[in-house]
Amino acid sequence: MKKILLPLVALLTAPAAIAETEVVTIVDHITSGTSNVINQPEELLKRLLPVEGVEEESKEEIARPVNGRMAGFRVQVFSDNNARTAKNEARSKQRIISSRFPQYQTYVMYTSPYWRLKVGDFRTQQDANAAADELRRAFPAYSKEIRVVRDRVTVHE
Predict the structure, then answer these.
(1) 109 DSSP β-pair partners
(2) Which tens digit of pLDDT belongs to each residue from 15-68?
(3) Does residue 51 belong to any structural domain of this protein?
């Protein structure tokens, strides 16, 4: 009887105990009639203000990276998730392609669980397709795996 009575009493008194406690949130504490002071350095204020006298042409130049990374295209030559052989196969194909096409930068990348070999930094899909066709002609054995993919590319001018 005691085993049943004790949990029953605890269950009946728990809601009353919870209702008596006052819940104070951080927002209530911050806005409870006190004043908040924010100290802001003048240098930060200068950086937050809009720049005056900037023409539209110069804004467009800022938006286009000259040397950096931007959205573009690469030619993916290899992709495999075999943990034992994929890394070595990607590096082997990288050496072969780099020796035949030194004008294209090659990238071996690991995105779990895939090892991938990507070639080139192309701004347009047409340029990437032309390079993919060139790679297919040079390496017919790789032609089933060669495809153009979107990627962040390195831009040099």
Answers:
(1) 116
(2) 666 656 666 677 776 667 666 677 778 887 777 777 665 555 444 444 455 567
(3) no
User: Could you give the number of structural domains in the chain?
Assistant: 1
- Per the CB < 8 A criterion, the answer to whether 108 and 94 are in contact is yes
In whole angstroms, give the CA distance from residue 92 to residue 17. Answer: 70
SS3 content of the chain, % helix, strand, coil (to 5): 45, 25, 30
> Does 13 map to a domain?
no
> 44 in a domain, yes or no?
no
d(C-alpha 103, C-alpha 124), whole Å: 17
The CATH number of the domain holding residue 111 is 3.30.70.1070
Domain that holds residue 126: 68-155
Q: What is the pLDDT of residues 92-126, one digit of tens each?
A: 999 999 999 999 999 999 998 999 999 999 999 99
Number of CB atoms found within 10 A of residue 145's CB: 15
35 occurs within a structural domain: no
pTM higher than 0.70 = no
